[in-house]
Amino acid sequence: MAVGRLEAIWIKRAHRGPMDSVQSAELDVERGLVGSVDRSRRRQVTLLEAESWERLMGELHADIDPSARRANMLLSGVSLYQTRGRVLQIGSVQLAIGGETTPCERMDEALPGLQVAMRPMWAGGAFAHVIAGGIVRMGERVAWL
Fold it and tell me: Which CATH number is 140's domain given?
C-alpha cells in the first residue's frame, strides 16, 4: 500500500485571492476546509500530487510554486489518477475523492501552456469531500483506505 505525505496546505480566503500557506488546517464534514472559499458540498477540498507538479514544471521548462495551481493540499507518494470514489486518509481526516479537478484558464495566467499540460492523467489533481473531520498538519501521513 502506498503511503505518502502532506507536503503543503493552502487556504484561499477570498475568491481569486492569494493562497495562504498554513502549517495546519481544520477539515469539517459540513464546512470542508475551514476558512477557505470556493467550495461546495461535493468539492470541499482540492488536492494536487507533488510528483505531477514536478513533471509539469519539467515539461514546461518552468519552476513556479505549486500554490499557483490553487489547490488546498499538496501530497507526495500517492497517485490521484482515476481515484473517484476512493477514500484518502490524512492523519485522522478522511476524504472521499469526487473526481478530477479540471484545469481552468487561471492556469495559463500562472504559466502559459499549463492548462493543456494538466489535462492528461488528472495532472490538475482531484477534489474531495470530508467524511471524517479533524486537524491536518504538514508532514502528516497520507494513505488510501
Answer: 2.40.33.20
Closest among 145, 141, 138 to 7, alpha carbons compared: 138
Range of the domain at 95: 3-144
Q: Which three cell numbers stand for residue 31?
A: 464546512
**Coil, strand, or helix at residue 58?**
helix
For residue range 11-54, what is the model confidence (pLDDT) as tens digits?
998 888 889 999 999 999 999 999 998 667 778 999 999 999 99
**Residues in Cβ contact with 55 at an 8 Å cutoff, skipping those fewer than 6 apart:** 123
| Grid cell locating 62 | 518552468
CA dihedral sign of residues 55, 109, 24, 32: negative
pTM: 0.95
Domain count, the chain: 1
Instruction: Please report the DSSP string for 61-130 in residue order.
Output: T----GGGG--SEEEES---TT-TT-EEEETTEEEEEEEE----THHHHHSTTHHHHTTGGGTT-EEEEE
34 within 8 A of 27, measured Cβ to Cβ? yes
